[in-house]
Amino acid sequence: MQLEDEIKQAKFKTPFHKAALNISFTANWLAGTLLPVFKKYGISAEQFNVLRILKGQHPNPSPLQLITERMLNRMSNATRLVEKLRIHGYVTREICPENRRRVNILITEEGLALLDKISPEVEEAMNSQNCLTEQEVNTLNSLLDKLRS
């Protein structure tokens, strides 16, 4: 469906304005397709992102700063997200022995098991929305990378 129909707006100030709105609208639409999967497991998209970052570092600990730098949404409060994951038993927090001001985060076996369960469902939800060819996806990725550079 065209953006104009989705948001009931016929005109845009500039083509760039339309593109910016389209990117924002589409990002929210994609996030909405994943929301039921995350809700089923009682976590948020941001918490899922933190768990994937930690799994990528596993078995090494990750300082909070590394998590923040790698998050998709850098405006998220990583400290709060990690604490919620800790309460559920998906991560542990340890004071760094070399630098007591630094806190290291480790994913637990429960966190790894959750990712093993949820990841295929996330992949399936993402693939169900794919109506683009591989070439179109590559072009889209190149354009988005160019926009951010």
Automatic annotation (TrEMBL):
Q: Which GO terms describe its molecular function?
A: DNA-binding transcription factor activity
Q: Which organism is it from?
A: Roseihalotalea indica
Lineage of the species this protein comes from: Bacteria, Pseudomonadati, Bacteroidota, Cytophagia, Cytophagales
- The name on file for this protein is MarR family transcriptional regulator
Q: Which InterPro entries match?
A: HTH_MarR-typ, MarR/SlyA-like, WH-like_DNA-bd_sf, WH_DNA-bd_sf
Q: Which GO terms describe its biological process?
A: response to stress
Query: Pfam families in the record, alphabetically?
Result: MarR (PF01047)
On the tree of life, the source organism's domain of life is: Bacteria
HTH marR-type domain: residues covered: 1-149
Which SUPFAM superfamilies does the record match to this protein?
A: Winged helix' DNA-binding domain
